[in-house]
Amino acid sequence: MSELLKRFKGITEDPGLSFTQKARYLSLEAENSLPYPELDEETAKALEERVICDMYEGHAPFKPRYVMPDYSVVLEKGSTFLELDPATTLDEAINSLMIAYHHVPSVTNMPVFIGRLDNLLLRFCDDVSDEDLYKKLKLFWRYLDRVLPDAFMHANVGPTDNRVARTIMRIDAELKQIAPNLTFIWDPEVSSDEIFSQACESIIECSKPHIANNPLHQPLFDEYGYGVASCYNVLPLCGGASTLTRINLREVARRSKDTADFFENVLPKYIDLNFRLTEARIDHLFNKSGFFEGFLVKEGWISRDRFTAMYGIFAMAQCVDELQAKEGRSGKYGHDETANQLGHRISKVLFEAVEARPMENCWRGKAMLHSQAGLSDDDGCTPGVRIPYGSEPDPVTHVQALAEHHAFYPSGVSEILTLDETIENNPAALEQLVKGAFSLGFREFSANVSNNDLVRITGYMVRLSDIEKFKECGGSRINTTVLGAEAADKGKILERAPRVMSHELAPRYSQ
Amino acid sequence: MNLPLATVSKVLKFSCVDGPGNRLVLFLQGCNFACPTCHNPHTMKLCNDCGDCVPECPTGALTIVQGKVVHDPNICDQCDRCLDVCPINANPKVTQYNVDDVLALLYQNKPFLNGITISGGEATTQLKFIIALFTAIKTDEKLKDLTCFIDSNGYLPEAAWKTVLPVTDGVMLDIKAFDNTLHSLLTTRSNQRVLASAKQLFAAGKLHELRYLLIPGRTDSSQEIKELADFVRALDSATPLRLNAFQHHGVKGEALTWPTMKEPDTERIAAELRSAGLTNVVVPAVYI
């Protein structure tokens, strides 16, 4: 049996995976047994060394990484392909959405964006009582978590204060599910103080929603606007992102003699190589995969010319510390003014490079810079421009250290503030922190409250109690060797992958 | 007139436990109580330059210059060894701030702040500074919407409160015990002034919150709890009352042998106080 067939066999027989998880890993293995889109030697080498990274999106991109449909199309016009009439009631609208989600792909094959739900549903709610609205949305929420169990699936509400947004945030705080993830889009000119307070109280309850700063995002997009998907990717609605590639800035710094060499030679080289990687992947998607001939485009859910390319970076902290050491300076990223300014300078250079490079088959002819949240295996590299976990200063100093980066990352900055649980008795403090952060230029705000069962890891949600169960079953596995076959079987049952996964973070099967 | 200076042991830019919203907190050095249960005992006394800490400092951040202990914050790695070895519960790492220094801190962090709280140590031992600072904040166009709070043990006499209350928005006041002998044992001082301060602050509309530290076997007796309920009811049964639960975190000395206050007992007492008519009893969010 060939190595490949052995891997297929291993997946089908892995007792820790559900059958849907097996099907997914089999399809990934199959895709990855195909040759990679053609890369020049230098780009292939950089990818091999993982100085640049394709997020293990697969060898033959046949669907965009993030699809951000305009779901109002299916609600207003129905769908010929799906044989759906226009929705006329709230029940029909929710039902059409539930059907629609199954036909929206993404890198994980599950939808990462399920719509700006209040915009979509509000017009069907006139004759619906508050109690009925609550009941219907609660069932909808339960359906989403159980049927589309991906922690990256993302709903948006706001900026207006409305019944749907309020009810969704209330249900989300009550159910404390991992899926869907939720963003409240905040705009001081539009959002009421009450709904902003509700969002902050909900964060204290369950670390959701994430709050997006509409006045900073909206001007970058057109009349269609934007949506927030996955972990904090801000993308054009009715389009999305073809691909996400990223530069490991730590590796770039390691390959540089000093700061001057970094800026003059090494960083520009890898910026270019990451562009080439991005272009090769986009070329396959647009010119070979046939994706844009499908019904999503024909019916107007998405438009071929509204897909951007996300140009990601990560390990800013390790990069800056590496360069600081090469310059004989000890100040650490996040804590030292010189180190922080060096970080801001790197972000600016990256932003200017991405703005300057024309890209084919890309919304507005350019990629969008992104501070990328990481994979589960990133070898000690800190996500995006974040301060390394465990060494963060107080939340105010934290925000002040990072705020200047935010202007350079139009497609999103994944940042998480950890707050201790004393905030529970004082939500006004959280509100002021969010307002302070936004006034300094933060594009988005996410927080973990440290006693919540539901917490963010790199941006997606997990339940701490699930992790605890995992740790316990790690212990059982060790015991199995002594306790024999019966215990071994039990141990393997306990090893099951959690029902709700973060599929983006597990892009490959690893035994 | 001499410009008042504050001796500050610590500044926090983010605190959600020192009054409404997020507050910049100045912890002033020095206290007129000496509670064995103190969780910041190194804030009690002012340094007497004995120098015992200097040879203990692993990074060489402490030196003696012209008979004074000098601290270099650029070398210090905050190991707090100096606090552990200090024979008098003082702190060699204090910084002197004048009013303009604090105003600069407030400007820098203004978008994040609902207000400022002066804590300690005992804040009111440096009353002149507080009055000067709060007056400056109230007359500064960019800062005057910040609320000015004091966290106090209540030992300040009535006449002195009158000098600071016009520029103070609220006071968080600790009552350690109602039985005066117990209060003396727990603080080294009588509680007469403390109880009088609570009444005076309430009458002035400046009592933001009362705080009561539950110590098992000492301040959690049914008699103490009854007197606490009676006292609060006599003010206003809606007065915010924060129950703190004695824990060992930060404590030095004898009180480390005292039992800690557990969550179920705290909840039980909170329930008793609520059934006695108090409507605004807050329990700790965390037990560490």
Automatic annotation (TrEMBL), chain A:
Q: Which domain of life is it from?
A: Bacteria
Gene3D superfamilies, per the entry = 3.20.70.20
InterPro entries assigned: Glycyl_radical_YjjI-like (IPR016905)
Q: Which NCBIfam families match?
A: glycyl_YjjI
Protein's name in the database? Glycine radical enzyme, YjjI family
The organism of origin for this protein: Pseudovibrio ascidiaceicola
Automatic annotation (TrEMBL), chain B:
Q: Tell me where in this chain the 4Fe-4S ferredoxin-type domain is found.
A: 34-66, 67-96
Q: Transmembrane stretches, by residue range?
A: none
**Where in this chain does the record put each Radical SAM core domain?**
17-288
The protein's matches in Pfam families, at most eight in alphabetical order, are given as: Fer4 (PF00037), Radical_SAM (PF04055)
Q: Which cofactor does it need?
A: [4Fe-4S] cluster
Q: Which SUPFAM superfamilies match?
A: 4Fe-4S ferredoxins (SSF54862), Radical SAM enzymes (SSF102114)
Sorted keywords for this record are:
4Fe-4S, Iron, Iron-sulfur, Metal-binding, Oxidoreductase, S-adenosyl-L-methionine
**Assigned protein family:** Belongs to the organic radical-activating enzymes family.
Please state what the protein is called: Glycine radical enzyme activase, YjjW family
What organism is the protein native to?
Answer: Pseudovibrio ascidiaceicola
